[in-house]
Design goal:
82 residues, mainly alpha, elongated, 3 helices
């Protein structure tokens, strides 16, 4: 084992957080959880998209390829920013 202290927050220290729905920059909080959404509207849109995806998995709605690719791009954009 290394004798150097671990700094596990260094990965996130310099990344600019963005909204997972629209990609807008988020203000960084000094303490607490990192924000995921820029507004209540984006939070609601994310909820509706998750519910729609759940209904499609259950078979009650067919998959829309355009929406699936948009969701995948949003997730990849957020993961790439971390």
């Amino acid at each position: 084992m290394s004798a150097q202290p671990r700094d596990e927050t260094s990965v996130f220290r310099h990344a600019t957080p963005v909204c997972v729905v629209c990609g807008a920059e988020l203000a960084r909080a000094a303490t607490g959880r990192r924000r995921l959404f820029c507004s209540p509207a984006c939070r609601q849109r994310a909820y509706r998209l998750r519910e729609e995806a759940r209904r499609r998995r259950d078979g009650s709605l067919p998959a829309d390829p355009a929406e699936v690719s948009r969701l995948l791009a949003a997730v990849l954009r957020q993961v790439g920013r971390r």
